[in-house]
Design goal:
The protein contains three helices and six strands; from the N terminus they run ββββαβαβα. By secondary structure, it is an alpha+beta fold. The longest helix has 15 residues. The protein is globular, with a radius of gyration of 14 Å. The termini are far apart.
Length: 91
Amino acid sequence: MYTLLGADGVPYRSWVPGRYGGHRRGRVYGRLDCPSALRALARGAYRRHRVFFATESDAVAAGYRPCAVCLPGPYAAWKQRRCDLAGPAQR
């Protein structure tokens, strides 16, 4: 069994592995084959903060942002929404 985070951020058990991985402290999610995440995992410190999601929408609902490296399109959209919410004085 696998432990995944749901849209509410609460862990649950699943027979199906997650399709996205994330970093609990950085609140970032991305593909399981993300080069940036794989480098961090190779260094060792990242593993204990690793979480998994079944879907991208679960990760977003749980408050995680897309990875700029492996999900550049969703990241650009996320960043644009953030800038739009901040308003012109914050840019």
